[in-house]
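Hey, can you fold this one?
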Amino acid sequence: MNESVATSTPTPQTQEAFMASLTPRQVVKELNKYIVGQEKAKRAVAIALRNRWRRQQLSKDMRDEVAPKNILMIGPTGVGKTEIARRLARLAKSPFVKVEASKYTEVGYVGRDVESMVRDLVELSKTMLREEKEQEVKEKARQMAEERLLDLLLPPPPGRPLPKDDMELDDLGREQHDKTREKFARYIKEGRFDDRMVEIEVREKAAPMVDVISGAGMEEMGNNLKDMLGSMFPQKTRRKKVKVPEAFKLLCQEEAEKLIDPENLAQEAIERAEQNGIIFIDEIDKIIGRQGASGGPDVSREGVQRDLLPIVEGSSVNTKYGIVKTDHILFISAGAFHAVKPSDLIPEFQGRFPIRVELDSLNKEDFIRILTEPDNALIKQYTALLKTEGIDLSFAEDSIHEIAEMAATVNERTENIGARRLHTILEKLLESISFDAPDMDDKTITIDASYVSDKLKDIIQNEDLSRYIL
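Sure. Predicted structure:
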């Protein structure tokens, strides 16, 4: 974790106030900063997030009865399905896991167990919570680490305990020692000891264990076996010479770990995953069997739907931190549905995704907005990247229109990959500038429509070339 970034850790009270302020209109406004269009999908996820807060305001009996309304997003690739869900989770500070439905297989086939997505969510929840806890205890951990570092820099004479614990020291000796420690503490902060080496004890990292158990349904057993074998052997430590800044960093980490209760951390991680977790299941259309097929992989595809069903409708999943109930986890599934329809999903699975939103394909006007409007717009990204080389890159308005026109044309002629086409076109457009940037004498470059046309016209017109290059 970057110590130079000071972020305030949300307390339960501030988090509650923050969630109360996230009205659906405010959520859509925040999403508009990063995603162009797709108003229906934004409204659907904003309402789902607000319903979570509304549920928390109910009595306990009623709260347990209110289930989240899972969402099915339908639309081609590159139109913002994943980004909407990811930005929503980041906005709400919720644990978020994206999985691909095609990676899972029915029990009895070789592939990942569907319950692993819940275990991944809990792991992520624990990581988020640990970072928050480390921020809470950061100041105290730094003070304790500084004391340990001073003990290393100011060792006692051989055969005697640390002077701060030596009751035989007279008042003058103790005062002199305290002054020296204060001086050394000041030197550490001023960086005067940055080049000095100290010897500290560090814990050895456990060697990675080879997976001897694989296959669907065996993943949790494998994790439990690793934990059991790991706990049978005490963690080894070794002495290591490092410079003072690195020693201080390592000691801060050690002290922070001592101040965090692992049992409470695990319980809070489970609760956060249960109450605030979001699981995004992509490529849901890939687990729909072909009409008329009676065997082979189609059996497994339908089996994955049936295996996913209890997870989505609410079940208990065993993890190494305890039982996790999935009743109130929000599931958002998405698929292009080119060759199949949502109605081809098994009826029980359809019923667990009551909210369906169709995302629109992107056109030239959308591409113009994507290039310029969002906070992370591609034009802004490339301009900032080349600024690091001293290049002052600017795009004329007609060049942006030309890029958008080309992206829309290639998407129509070849495979429609949505906004991802802009990445491909801009990379090809700026390839020579990016390569020569460190050696350029003229540091001011303006991209206009004629430049775009000269660089990409031949590729756009040649359909075979555009299939392979763009």
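Residues 364-469 form a domain with the Helicase, Ruva Protein; domain 3 fold (CATH 1.10.8.60). Let me know if you want another pass with a different chain boundary.
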